[in-house]
Amino acid sequence: MDVNAAVAAVAAIAGVLTGVIAMLAFRFSEREQRRPTRTSLHTDLVLPPGVDTVLSVLRSSAVVLDEADGVVKASSAAYALGLVRGGKLAVEPMMKMARDTRRDGEIRQVELDLPRRGTGRGEALAVSARVAPLGSRLVLLLVEDLTEARRIEAVRRDFVANVSHELKTPVGALSLLSEAVMDASDDPEAVERFAGRMQIEATRLTNLVQELIDLSRVQNDDPLEDAEPIRVDELVAEAIDRCRHQAGAKEITMAAGGTADLRVWGNRGQLAAALGNLVENAVNYSPARTRVGIAARTVVQPGGDLIEIAVTDQGIGISDKDKERIFERFYRVDPARSRATGGTGLGLAIVKHVAASHGGEVTVWSAEGQGSTFTLRLPEARAARERAHQMSHRDDTEGLEDEAGRTSHPSPHSSDPSAYETLPSPEVLP
């Protein structure tokens, strides 16, 4: 009996102790839950009032660091640029700037080139970083992405340099020829010869200035403000008339087919200039006694039908490396031939901008020694007009963006000349 009583007493004491321990643990847990966490201290107590709201509306990437170099606050753009990783500032030069600013309170700014995350091409990300003290213990880092601005500036510099070079050539030639005319004033034949050369250079200069004006216009104007349904056969006829003299001099046959009853939607002047540039290039880069074909067809698309106008030549063709650059301003596949024909290197750049501004695109198929096919894809007139009418009555912003995306990026199709072999008998235009 004594043994059982002792066991019962021990069990009772153990139960009491367990209850006391459980109660103490519960009280400790409640205390810990009420205690502010490190994160809440940072966001609720450390940041000055209103700073969080201001940082959320800044266009620059923003990072707030505490006295231990920990990230208190970081915008989504900072994570997207790879500035913050694992709760730490991942760019060592910026970290050093923050520490120096925390030490002496001075505002610092520097431009850096950072490796771009997720690419294996070694492209640099150009940023401008500015560090300033925020209160007594925090440091604010603002980072602005300058990559696109630098790219645009580089394009602008190249454009100015190319324009200067292209203008210098005919202007210099005119200067030399005028001196030659003065020196040969007593030689009528020489004067006539030099005057003819001056006319050629003056024409080249005029064409260059006009194409610069055209390029500027198609980049800045909205062609759809004066849009109208345009017959494709009228555009083709105008393009052929524009090149009839050059084609006749080289005995090149121009043939058009499949253009009847097709209409596109856009600015007549810009579309005529774009198609004329394609046909003119085809004639200039084709050998004598060959053929240039212009064919059109309708392509059914879920977002609206497209009209494809293909210009095919039997010329020298374009290499793969040149195909990536032919739509750049002033780029020439064959500079010597461009000089001989008066080409400015702006024709295809104009075609590209006209196609894009009309919600279409231009593509090229080519093989060296086998010729080339440039395909201009534009919205069909009725589909484009119906789509514009629907968009004008739609209030849903997401629906508008989706419709515009489908219009601006049609699905690609083959530009191989064989795709147009089933067209009706073409009208041969000598």
Automatic annotation (TrEMBL):
Its main location: membrane. The keyword Transferase applies. Residues 383-397 have a biased composition (Basic and acidic residues). Residues 162-382 form the Histidine kinase domain. Residues 408-418 have a biased composition (Low complexity). It is found in: Cell membrane. One of its GO terms (biological process) is cellular response to phosphate starvation. It is a multi-pass membrane protein. Its EC number is 2.7.13.3. The keyword Kinase applies. It comes from the Bacteria. Keywords: ATP-binding, Cell membrane, Kinase, Membrane, Nucleotide-binding, Phosphoprotein, Transferase, Transmembrane, Transmembrane helix, Two-component regulatory system. The chain crosses the membrane at residues 6-26. It catalyses: ATP + protein L-histidine = ADP + protein N-phospho-L-histidine. One of its GO terms (molecular function) is phosphoprotein phosphatase activity. This is Sensor-like histidine kinase SenX3. It comes from Streptomyces toyocaensis. The lineage of its organism: Bacteria, Bacillati, Actinomycetota, Actinomycetes, Kitasatosporales.
